[in-house]
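seq as requested:
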Amino acid sequence: MRKILYYIAALTFLPSAVLAGNSSETMEQRVLAELANRSGIVAGDLQPALNDCELNQRNMNLCAFQRAIWAELLLDDAIKTTGAKTDSDYIAWKEQLQSRCLADAEKEAGGGTMLPLLISECKELAMLAERYMILGSESFPPPPQPPHKWD
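struct tokens:
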């Protein structure tokens, strides 16, 4: 159930250009470079893991971390564009987010190999929600609706 809610929230907060992948080539490169930098894993070695996210827990953790970095870069861009937060406010917000996500993940998983995955998912959703609050609902297209039997 948590996974379903996660995907619904992610699809709601991601703009259509990101989902389509048309203008996100440079974003994909930025995310991969940042992921390699933060994880200490060479970008060429990351690609096979990111292509098969469900293979093992390590791959799941890396894919969740990648999505969290993607959300963080999207939020960074939104803040730079709108000037919604000062640097010090944004740093303080990210520190609070880190501690809140760590506490929630430890409570849910009790440590172990799922901890990084849960922290990354928490941070991703919070950053996408913050971006949504900054840009406003008019900046996001409505989520796609499934066809109805009478359409």
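Residues 57-82 form the longest helix (26 residues).
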